[in-house]
């Protein structure tokens, strides 16, 4: 049992909005941990996210009923959905955009055994770069789960690295992400392919293409980036 339910019951509640469980982190004694629902230190964090664009139709239906003037609608929707599940199962819901920031990427690497791609996005052996973490459920109970097995890191076997060669302004390199160059290009006269179809480097990755976000989803994320 987890809180007031089982992992399967939590997964079923999340699936109603296209979200999935993305693994679990257990905080050991002496490790700095976020607080749970009562304010005591959490002992476990269940990561919540998506594979592909499964949540998109659910988000769009919700968006139609909301005022237009919402600064970050996808974050707002995610908080509402995950928050409702947290309330049902006796957990505290947290988001990657919460301040102060929580170490979601480190949690994800620990929970699923993933490593960053050259683009910084964690490479998943099945989903490629087409997945995301939308939040986490913090429990004050320790959750018994199997230890994560190290995943095959597909970037290690990718010789050509097309993800490093497709951007017209070479935004990604061994030196990191040239944020300002990318932003200026996306906003500029020649940035239409990126604005309408998403990051060219990300789309060049040959892995997980069955989960690639449709162009309208990528355009939504790119518009948020370019605001």
Radius of gyration: 18 Å
Order of helices and strands: HEEHHEHEEEHEEHHHH
Instruction: Specify the helix fraction band.
Output: 25-40%
Strand order of the largest sheet: 1-2-6-3
Morphology = globular
Structural class, judged by helices and strands? alpha+beta
Portion of residues in beta strands equals: 15-25%
N-C termini distance: 43 Å
Number of strands: 8
* Helix count, DSSP H or I runs of 4 or more residues: 9
Can you tell me the residue ranges where pLDDT is under 50 for at least 5 consecutive residues? none
Average pLDDT taken over every residue = 93
How would you characterize the largest beta sheet?
4 strands, antiparallel
Quick synopsis:
The chain is an alpha+beta fold and 227 residues long.
Strands, helices and their partners?
Blueprint: H1 7-15, E1 20-26, E2 44-51, H2 56-64, H3 73-89, E3 92-94, H4 104-112, E4 115-116, E5 122-123, E6 131-139, H5 154-157, E7 172-173, E8 176-177, H6 179-187, H7 192-197, H8 200-204, H9 215-226
Antiparallel strand pairs: 1-2, 2-6, 3-6, 4-5, 7-8
